[in-house]
Structure formats: structure tokens, C-alpha cells
Amino acid sequence: MEETMDFEYDEDFEEDNGEEEDVVVDEEDDEYVFRFKSGVNPLDLTENNASGLQVYQQFERLEYEALASRKRKAIAATRSEEDVASKSMYEFMAAINYGGFRRKSRKLSNTRGRRKGTKNKLNPQVTRLLGEATLHYAHGRFEQAISVLNEVIRVSPNTPDSYQTLGLVYKELGDNRKTFDYHVIAAVLTRTDSSLWKQLFAWCVEKGDTAQAKYCLCKAVGADPKDVGLRFHLASFYVELGDYQRAAESYKKIQKLCPEDVEAIKAGAKLYLKCSQLEHSTGMLEEYLNGHPSEADLSVLDLLLAILMQNNAHAKALHHIEHAHMVYFSGIELPLKLIIKAGICYLFLGNMEKAEIYFAVLQRENANDHADLFTEVADSFMSLEHYNSALKYYCMLEANAGSDSGYLHLKMAQCYLSLKERGQAIKFFNKALQTFENNIDARLTLASLLLEDAREDEATALLSPPKSLNSVDQISDKSSQWWLNEKIIMKRCHIYRAKGMPEDFIDTIFPLVRESLCAEALRQKVKVKKRLTRSILNIRVDVCNTKTDSILCGIRPIASKSDQLKASRAKKLLLKKEKLKQEKKALADAAGVDWHSDDSDDEPPQDVRFDPPLPNLLKDEDHQHVIIDVCKALISLQRYEEASDIIDLSLRLAYIKLPLEKKEQLRALGAQMAYDSTDPKHGFDSARYILHQHPYSLAAWNCYYKVISRLGKSNSKHYKFSRYIRAKHKDCVPPIIIAGHQFTAASHHQDAARDYLEAYRLLPDDPLVNLCVGTALINLALGFRLQNKHQCIAQGLAFLYNNLRLCENSQEALYNVARACHHVGLVSLAATYYEKVLAMKEKDYPIPRHPNKNPDLAGKQESGYCDLRREAAYNLHLIYKKSGAVDLARQLLKDYCTF
């Protein structure tokens, strides 16, 4: 449709734009008049619109294309003039004289509209048809009126009256869309008539169509640029849309039309200031003041001074005050407000003495009558860090202030805080919180001051929820519940942690940490990529599971290998979806979110709009420290399952965001938890990861062995990990010894001896390895299937004697040799070594503990827990008793085993 219509430039439609040179094109471009070309059916704009655009949007596009065409013509004309300039002077003068390059003047007259004799007159046939259509419309014959008006549009498509009448007909028929469209066409064809555009603008506002309203209002302003009311509407409209730049420009044009409109000037200045255009803002106000040399509205001067002082242009503001004194208040005293502003300007310019002279007038004024001036002076002193001077004026206000003095007390508290007068600061912060109990910053500052005075109980009470809190308060708006603020909670937790109160610390912060982590996990679960729907998966599964009523019932139908593979995958996906659904439900319950799900997942998953109580838990470094502290406190309280959940969620959700140091700390805590807990499965992965990072650390292997010793005999994860470590680190001895220990515990002594001997090949001088090989060979020799038992016993004793040599005849090594001899029946030799054990006393050694475990929390063993004399005496008494020396056996028990 756009190909059959165009904007045509009408040379007879000229106007004087001398006062409107800076007009925005979309508002007041009067250089184009729309005309339908011959052979065009304008009814296609509304009846057969295939483009999907509204009528005004089609006109916008055509206007843009016409403007672009005009610019192209102007560029071409400029180039032709450059060609003319390159010609000789004779040719150029001849061209001018004969009018070859003469351009028509755009300012032929000061009147708007067409020149005389150029207005197109309607032919008699069109006039008659319009009258006939009007009669049909007046008598309610709307169908006949539409038919006649369609004929008028066909004969004369550029007659606006026909479209306007047609719009009125459709209005009576209740077709609002066509009513609006035909009125738009009529308004476009009568461009200078602003009344139609005003009516269209009102209709658009009623419909709530912002785009159409803006278009119609701009056209109305373009039709009548001197209509101040329209410009006010346009400026207000731009403000509502948030386009403050154009709104300010509209007020600027209103100032040109009505220089006395003070409200428009002030509104424009504020909008320019909002757009960070200080020069334009002050320029509007200064233009008004310059245009009123003898008398002016002082509110304009007050606004100008406020803007200049706000932007640190105090010298310029002082100049305007002095000029106003000479011009507007010549021979009389300045108003009190201007005197105070002059004093503030001198204060910021560094002339303290002169500023105090100006401020002296406040001494004889009532603070209640001029509270804003007292406050402005005090705030100025405070901003310049003259806190004592600021307090002088704040105290004047406090002496005369009413009950609502919360802001005043808050500022006084900040002054005393800056002066390091902690007692006064606490006093006025308490007064301020009586009025502004939801002021988070004031409450936190007061809590810090109380902590500096070692008043932890008062600080805790200040940050704790009110004791009179009831269920109604808990259900109400959370924005008014200051005790639920993130900063308040973190400060209270800091106090509990510093005072060593893990239970209170956990009760305060753990629910919020868990809720935040679960909410983040739920959000990530919901945002998973949408795959095949449940219905499609069920169809694929049924392809290979369909049963029939024929004699082949129960036999799977014939299906291709690809269909069978799809069915297998679909079955796995259905199980996975069911598991995922249960996980989402569990996370939603933990996060406190209502989870509603049906059996169908054909709809795409919707994003969960849930704000966690600690939104920056995984990003902020301080909050990451809180997670670690929470895990430590949970472990100290032996709440291992909850600590495991926090560690797992944190590592899974913030694996990329967490620094390496924090990850190591969390995994170390997980390993410690597995080391201490009776159910070590929660920290098994952490202990295994630490061994991945430190495969040769004996402390890490000790922790890991203690963990797996509680997991039971059949733990597939451990066996896979053990095979992986032994294959990757062939020279690593601890996993070999652990495997030997496990074979020994299962009474597989031959396999244990094989692993111990492999460790002996790597560490032949290690006492523990020699001890393990010796005990394994001794146990193997006592079996039923071994043929060379004596040789095996001798080899075992050889390793035990090697252990005795490496341990330098220690009590423990002597006891091991004695116990081995006793075990194989060499009682005489065993008695000799038991007596050697009884002859020496062993001192106590510290028990090895987990490196991250707090030694203060561990229980202490009784004295003598490393001495083996009681064990040796008991075993020796058994030998004596069996040999018949009962008295000697009784004496051994009396000497060494009596408590």
C-alpha cells in the first residue's frame, strides 16, 4: 500500500518559520502536505490493510520516507550549485539573470496557509455528493451514507470532509477503530487544523494507547505551534514517558511564547538539571531574571541559587544575591532567606568571619519559625566538617523542636560520632531510633558503638526482634520488619560468633543460609534445558511395550533397532524426570516456596521468581566466610547432616564463583566431619578429594582410613578410588597398607601378606611395614592349607625382629615379639620378652588427631595410656597359670593389674 501513496511537497503551502527554527521534526514539520495520488483507493488504509500497521503508523512511515527524499533532493541541489560555482563568472551571472538556478523563497509572506488563488475548490459533483451523504447521516441512513462517501473518496480522495463524515457514521455504528482511522486521515489532509488532532489525542488517552497519543499530540502542536496549552500537555506527556530532555525543550519553547509563565520556567530548569545540563537549567532562570530588571518572581531566584549552590557554584550564586540586592531590594534589607544563602556562600568560599556575620541574624529569630534556615546552616557546617558549629545550630533547633525530631537527633548523633564523643552519640542514636526504628544504618552504627564499649548484651538486644512480636507482625510486610534485614542479621551473627555462642549463631543464620542455597538450587533446577515432553516419551516407550488381544499377546511387537534404542532412552528419561521432580519438590519445601506440579510437562518450565533472604550469599566474600563459619559451628554442635548439606550445596552452586581457598576450607571441614562423625558418608567425598590433591600426605591418609573403616566392608567408591590411586601413584605406600589392613580384617592373610610385601619393597626400613609383614606371615602360618608353616613362622619372626631393631628395642616392639611367640606356642621365648616389657616404663605420647580439629574440644586420656606393662603382665600370668605356677601368676596380677 505504501507504494501507491506519497507525501507531496506543495509549493503553495508556505509559512513563516522564523520563530520556529528549532522545532523538532516530529512535532512541527509543516513543509509537507499529504496528498493521495490519482488512481489510489484510500479505503485500503483501513479496509484491506495487509501490513498489520495502524493508520498513524503508516503515515509515520510515509512521512519519514518523504523527509528522506527531501534530504536527498537537497543534497543533489547542493551538488548542482557546486557545479555552477565551477563555471565561469559569465555563465554563472547569466544563469542567475535568466533564472536557471533560482530557488523559490520559503518566506514569501508572514501568513500561514496557501496564497491567494491557489486553493483547490471542490467541483459541484463532489459538493452535491457530500450534501447528500450528510442528509443520509442526519436521518440515520448509515449504509447509504457510507456508499455515497465511498464514491466521494473515489472521485476526490484528498477531501478531508468526506473522511470526517465517514468517521462520524462509523461512530454511530459503534466501530471505534474505523472511527479513529478515518479521523486520522481527515486530520492528516487538514494539517493546520489542530482541533481534530486534539480530539484524536483525547481518544488515545481514553484508550491508553501511548504511542498514538504521542503522535496525535505532536501533530496538534505542529498544526498550532503557538497553542501554549498543547505544549503544556506535550511536556507533561514527555515527563510521564520519562523523556526529560524533550520535556525540558518543550518548557523552553513555552518560555519563548509566554516569558511570564514562571511555573513553566521552573519546571524546565528542573528537568534540564535532571538531564545533567546545568548550563541550560541556569540559562532559563537567568533569562527570566534578565528580562525583569525591576521586579521579578523571587521563587525563580531561589531556585537559581539552590541549583548553583547544589553544584558548588557559590561565587556565582553570591553574585546573583548581590545583584538582586542592588536591583530588587535597593535601599532596604535583604530577605532573611537570601541573607542566610549569602552567608552559606561565604562559608563555602572560605570566609568564615563574614559568614558568621550573616548567620548572626538567626540569633534573634525563633527556630520554630525558620527551622529550614537553621537546618540549612547546620547542614552546611556539617558538610564542611565544622561539627561543633553544626551542633550549635542543631541544639537551637532541639530546644524549640516539637515531637517529630528524629532527623535532628540523627544528625546530632553523627556529629558527636565524628567528634568521637561516644557517649553523646549513643544517647542521640537512641533518641533517633525512637522515631525511626526502621533506620538500618543508625541501628547498625549504634550497635557498633555499644560493642566498642563492651556492652554486648545491649547490642544484641538492639539487633534482636521485638519481644512483643506476634504472628500478625510476622505475616505483615517484610519491608517494615527491620530485624529481617540482611545487614542486621549478619551483625547479630558476628556478635554471637565473637562471644562463642554457636547455638545462637546457628539459630540466627542457619535457616537463612539454607533457604538461600535451596532457592538458588531450585532456580537452577527449573532453568534446565527443556527436552522431550512426557507424552512423547510415553509414546516411545509404548512402541516396544504394546500388548494386543491376539494369540501373540505378551510377545513384544516387532520394532526396529532405532525405535528400541529410543524406547530405552525414553524410559531412562522418564525415571530421571520423576527423580528431578522429587528433588524440585524437596528444594521448594526447604526454600519455603509452594511447588505445584502436575503429571504433564508439555508446558515449558517457568522461572521461579523468589528472592532469597541473603541474595549475595555466594558472591560476596564476607558471606562466603559466613558459610564456612556456619559449617564449623554445625560440626562443633555435631549436626553433621546439616553441615554436609551446606557444604554440598555451596560447592555445587558456586564452584566457579568460590575462590580456591574457600573450596579447600569447605572440603577440609567435610573431611573433619567424616573423621569425627559416627556416620562418615557425609564427608567421604571431601576426604577423597583431599587425597586427590595430596596423595602423599600421611595425615590425609590417616583421616581417610578412619572414614572408610566406618563405611562397612563393601564400599564400591573406596575400591574404585583405591585402584585409581594405586595405578596412578605406584610409589604411594599408604593405599597399599590400607588394602593389606582390609584383607587382614577379612582374614585373607595371604592377600594381606602380598600387599604388605609390596609396601616393604618400597619402604624396607619402615617399622610399621615390617610389623605388618611379620604379623601377616604369622597369621598365614597358622592356617590349614599352608605346607611350609615353620618357614613362614621364621620369616614372620624375622620381620618382627627387624621391627625391633628399627624401633631400638622399644617397649611396643618387645611386646609384639612376645605376643607373636606366645601366639605360635613358643611360650618360653614369649615369657622372656614379656619380662623385658615389664622391666621398662614407657612415657605417654600425644594421640594423633585431625589437623583441623580443635584440641580443646577433644577428650584427654588418663596417664599411662602408652604403657604396655599391664597387657604384658596379664599375658605372662596366663603362661604361668598354664604351666602350674599359680602363685607366681597371682603375684603378677597383684603387682601390675590391680587398680
From TrEMBL:
Q: Name one GO biological process term.
A: transcription by RNA polymerase III
Q: Per its record, how is this protein called by name? A: General transcription factor 3C polypeptide 3
Which segments carry the TPR repeats?
A: 126-159, 228-261, 406-439
What PANTHER family is this protein classified in? GENERAL TRANSCRIPTION FACTOR 3C POLYPEPTIDE 3, TRANSCRIPTION INITIATION FACTOR IIIC TFIIIC , POLYPEPTIDE 3-RELATED
Q: Which domain of life is it from?
A: Eukaryota
Organism per entry: Acer negundo (Box elder)
Is Iron among the key words of this record?
no
Region Disordered: start and end of each range? 1-22
Q: Name one GO cellular component term.
A: transcription factor TFIIIC complex
For this protein, the record's Pfam families field holds: TPR_11, TPR_16, TPR_8
Q: Which Gene3D superfamilies match?
A: Tetratricopeptide repeat domain
Q: Which UniProt keywords apply?
A: TPR repeat
